[in-house]
Amino acid sequence: MQQAKPKEQLAETGASQTGFLVIGAATMIAGGVGFRLLPRLMTRGAGAAAA
């Protein structure tokens, strides 16, 4: 019965690492999309403000 506890800890650690990996990947993707779209949105806003 003592062996069950380390297995649970390993499973929890693996799950948390996977969660951090998914969150990190989503953050990088969102940052990349924002990096590509933000200058275009700013350019459109500047063009509309000038017009």
Structure description:
By secondary structure, the protein is an all-alpha fold. It is 92% helix and 0% strand. The protein contains 1 helix and no strands. The model has no long low-confidence stretch (mean pLDDT 76). Keywords: Membrane, Transmembrane, Transmembrane helix. This is LPXTG cell wall anchor domain-containing protein. The chain crosses the membrane at residues 20-38.
What are the salient characteristics of this protein?
membrane, mainly alpha, LPXTG cell wall anchor domain-containing protein, rod-shaped, transmembrane, transmembrane helix, 1 helix, 51 residues
Structural class: mainly alpha
The major sheet is characterized as:
none
Order of helices and strands: H
Poorly predicted runs of 5 or more residues: none
Radius of gyration: 22 Å
- The outline comes out as rod-shaped
Continuous helix count: 1
Beta-strand fraction estimate = under 5%
What is the helix fraction of residues, given as a range?
A: over 70%
- What is the overall pLDDT average? 76
Summarize the structure.
The protein is an all-alpha fold and 51 residues long.
Summarize the topology.
Layout (H helix, E strand, L loop, with lengths): L3 H47 L1
